[in-house]
TrEMBL record:
Pfam families: Macro (PF01661). It comes from Streptantibioticus ferralitis. Coiled coil: none annotated. CDD domains: Macro_OAADPr_deacetylase. NCBIfam families: PRK00431.1-6. Residues 1-169 form the Macro domain. This is O-acetyl-ADP-ribose deacetylase. InterPro entries: Macro_dom, Macro_dom-like. It comes from the Bacteria.
Length: 169
């Protein structure tokens, strides 16, 4: 069974096998978590992202899917890049958000990663309401069929931490 833990802070400093990046389809970096990972992880990560674009993902990584690269200079061994949906008030995109967590765990299993840190995917620049994003994250991890022993949600601020603590209860 997967043990869920919560931490407040910066995902780039986590000592886990893999950290998950809330990326965009281009895999070429951006702001938020994505910016922090590329900044602290160094150019090796972007080099692998470029190679993935050239080989497998000419049109970009689709929303809800996940793919791994090195973690460069970060303490983790791998970065698993996933693309969350942009929040929409008119369309329910929850399944795409759940898919990010599920597919990332599937990639983690393929890598043999036993400890995985996730940010609150889509809840920053992509505008997903934190409480709902937290519920989807926790529910999806609980229901996942995975060999990952620990999923650590790394929350950037108190409000995010509280939302995940409520979702876990
Ligand atoms: N560690 C942990 N959590 C963080 C960190 C960090 N270093 N930095 C931000 N957060 P976001 P998204 C929180 O915007 O909404 C990028 O430009 C943040 O407070 O990183 O999925 C990509 O390239 C929020 O709760 O990701 C895409 O274009 C959560 O992490 C787009 O943003 C996710 O915020 C993806 O947007």
């Amino acid at each position: 069974m997967t043990h869920i833990t919560l931490a407040k802070g910066d995902i780039t400093t986590q000592h886990v096998d893999a950290i998950v990046n809330a990326a965009n389809s281009s895999l070429m970096g951006g702001g938020g978590v994505d910016g922090a990972i590329h900044r602290r992880g160094g150019p090796e990560i972007l080099a692998e992202c470029r190679a993935l674009r050239a080989s497998q993902y000419g049109r970009g990584l689709p929303t809800g899917q996940a793919v791994a690269t090195t973690a460069g200079e970060l303490p983790a061994r791998w970065v698993i890049h996933t693309v969350g949906p942009v929040w929409s008030a008119s369309e329910d995109r929850s399944e795409a958000l759940a898919s990010c967590y599920r597919e990332s765990l599937c990639v983690a299993d393929e890598l043999g990663a036993r400890t995985v840190a996730f940010p609150a995917i889509s809840t920053g620049i992509y505008g997903w309401p934190m409480d709902d994003g937290a519920r989807i994250a926790v529910r999806t991890v609980r229901e996942a069929d995975t060999s990952v022993a620990e999923v650590r949600f790394v929350l950037f601020d108190d409000a995010a931490y509280r939302a995940f603590a409520d979702a876990v209860r």
